[in-house]
Amino acid sequence: MYIDPHVHCVSRTTDDYEAIAAAGVVAVIEPAFWLGQPRTNSGSFKDYFSMLVGFERFRAAQFGVRHYCCIGLNSKEANKPELAEEVLDLMPLYLAKEGVVAVGEIGFDDQSAAEEDALRKQIEMAQEVDLPIMIHTPHRDKKRGTTRTMDVLEDHGFPPEKVVIDHNNEETVREVLDRGYWAAFTIYPHTKMGSARMCAVVEQYGSERIIIDSAADWGVSDPLAVPKTARLMKERGISDAAITATTYENALAAYGQSGQMSADDWLNPLPIDQRTLFEGNSVLRGGQEPRIEKITKPDVVE
Amino acid sequence: MTVPDLPAALAPHLSADAAAWLDAQQEKVAAGDERALFLGFGLAPRKVGKAELNDARFPGWSVDQAARIVLLQAFPTEDEHRWLTAYDKLVDAAEVREQIALYRALPLLPFPHELADRAADGLRTNVKGVFEAIAHDNPFPQHHFNDARWNQMVLKALFIGSSVQPIVGLRERMNRDLAVMLHGYADERRAAGRDVPADLIDLLNG
User: Any idea where the domains of chain B sit in the sequence?
Assistant: First the structure.
């Protein structure tokens, strides 16, 4: 069983859902993010948040995948102050909802003053509703941006054990772990981590507080990144315990602090949830091997 | 239509803590506090749990869904526009299970004439559970839908692979136009080499 604790499902197809379910992914977490082009009004955000807690949750359930989300104003779009203000005003409407496991993904992009302002306001919201935080670290000037993000969190007295710092690399991981945070790694072609480099990180740092995700989105990315990296770790002789920790248990422990996510949700779903949020059961039975090759569609459409 | 007593059906399922929370929240909502309604609506599952209600008068309901609707029933109805605005805000921002609660509760809510439009909106969903909250075991459509709306609901149930048997008033509301549509649908399925749902055949045979 795997959890992909960072994947942008609204940008993915039903083929992807079929593939991840067949590969043993039982739960996904979808953080709110930038859509590839800027939104021009807050109404677009409202409908996007509604989609995360509404239709996308249902769409995942049809494939036996349990879907959770994070609500937040991403750093790129925090740079339009008027829009940012309106989106921040919307957030309380969504943060207390079932299945919202964190405030996120929030943090820095350009590391501007406006981004810092939105980050601080959202840290306060997370404190108010007692939710974990998912941090997006900047792709440019990452090392300094990561340090600065942790400084801001500590400025608010936010406990590091309730924060997942995402998109780490070899340059940032040590400080993130040393300061007591969860360190997530995104396996994403060309720009973030590769599977082989990920294995090396686990070999060097162990599996404690390390989380692996795909961040698959509208770009060239791989929704099977988590199971594929697990397979590579196995081939390289990394222990089963370390593989389970980094691809399932740690994500559950970190985001389970929300009180909105537990293994029972997919192992023993309540009748009320089975009627609406969990069709079928993707948990692999009887030692069935997870499949991570592409599912081939029949040539004929019935 | 007599409205069954939801608070009474819910009471035996509540722990002392849950009952205290619901009472306090209800009091705020009854004073017209919209924010308390919205927050209580979202927080209900973590405050009262999600056990089955197991009550024949409320088929398929769970404890948290009942608590949500008890809060909605507490919101003052003197100002119709204000009440409907609050209902709309809840629907607009609702997650899947919240949508189901808001539509299941239609027969228990005020201003049914106004809510009929909203129910028709709800039926445009692609989420089966939300559709069935309106269409199944729910007397609201039978009493408040005109034929055009009723007919679309029955046809859509078949179209999305939902059973028509649990539709309340299915045989009483049969009309010529619906019969034509149902026969047309069955013909279309046969022409495509697809099976015709058993409960459609039952319905066509009277």
Answer: 1-110, 112-205
The parent domain of residue A237 ranges over 2-268
**Residue A293: band (very low, low, confident or very high) from pLDDT cuts 50, 70, 90:** low
Distance CA A202, CA B160 (A): 47
For residue B127, the chain A residues in CB contact (below 8 A) are 54-55, 58
State whether residue A100 is helix, strand or coil.
strand
| Domain contains A222 | yes
Residues written for chain B: 206
Contacts B42 to A, Cβ<8 Å: 96-98
Q: Specify whether the CB–CB gap between A218 and A11 falls below 8 A.
A: yes
The pLDDT value recorded for residue A275 is 77
CA R_g for chain B: 19
What pLDDT digit, counting tens, does each position of B39-65 carry?
999 999 999 999 999 999 998 899 999
Contact B96 A57 (CB under 8 A): yes
Q: Which two tokens stand for residue A14?
A: 């039903």
- Give A-chain residues touching B95 at CB under 8 angstroms: 53-54, 57, 97-99
Question: Chain A: nearest CA to B176, how far in angstroms?
Answer: 32
Q: Is the pLDDT of residue B4 over 90?
A: no
- Nearest-Cα distance to chain A for B50, in Å, is 8
For B93, nearest residue in chain A (alpha carbons): A50
Report field, pTM of the whole predicted structure over 0.85: yes
pLDDT in tens, A168-193: 999 999 999 999 999 999 998 877 78
A276: nearest CB among B93, B94, B129:
B129
Answer whether residue A284 is part of any domain.
Answer: no
Task: Evaluate whether residue A300 is within a structural domain.
Answer: no
In chain A, what percentage of residues exceed pLDDT 90? 83
